[in-house]
Amino acid sequence: MHFVLEFTNLNSSEFAPFYEEVADAAFMKPWVKDSSDIHDANGNPMGDRTKAKETCMRDFRNSTYKIKEGNRSEKNISSIEEFLNFFDSHENKNIGMVVSNIASENIGLFLKNSLFRREDKNGNCQSVLRLVDDTPIAPLANFKAVYVLSRDSKHNVILDYESHCDSKTGKGQLMVDTAVENSQRIVISDDANITIKTRVIIEPSGEWSIENPYVYAEFWNIPKGN
Q: What is the rounded distance in angstroms from the CA atom of residue 218 to the CA atom of residue 22?
């Protein structure tokens, strides 16, 4: 089969210790200390680090951020200031900082590790992607992310996340790393593509949760030339 369609259960007891570990690395450690470079090419800071996390400011120019108000169409966010303005009327004045710690490479790293590097109790990788011989693999390629902010009737902030990778976003040959002992890098078919989607719900208190991610992938099981 050349495609994968999966809803990954982040509440699975089998992988719970692994998910907890990668969540801590992706979200808690940057919350305590985020040392990402937030200066532009001219050496000017790209935002206020007292209002948004550095990783979000750094990643802003490499991703697409949007706002959706009610039933209206999505509107692109053009600056960190506009991103933060979305939270101006929120009862929790720290909510922009909370969301910025999620809406960045942080959630991408969490999902990539959870989907492609997760380990069972025996330490064996159980990636959702595998070669035709069942070898677990992890993509080594650039993903382009889209973040859409909205609100619901309970005053929760809703963050819809989607990331995609193909030969265009990958900026060159698509490669994978075999997630086994003595791993190898393998060039994959130019037709390979993958989309990851999930939703994050941030409550007014600042507590938040990630819904089970949806993955659709094609042709990652075929090394180039086969």
A: 26
Q: What is the pLDDT of residues 101-110, one digit of tens each?
A: 999 999 999 9
Q: What is the pLDDT of residues 74-128, one digit of tens each?
A: 999 998 899 999 999 898 999 999 999 999 999 999 999 999 999 988 889 999 9
pTM of the model as a whole: 0.89
What token pair was written down for 28? Answer: 């808690």
Give DSSP secondary structure letters for 194-225. EEEEEEEEE-TTS-EEEPPPEEEEESTTSBTT
Q: How many residues are listed for the chain in this entry?
A: 226
Distance CA 216, CA 113 (A): 16
CA 130 to CA 3: how far, in whole Å?
10
Task: Tell me whether strands 208-210 and 193-202 are parallel, antiparallel or unpaired.
Answer: antiparallel
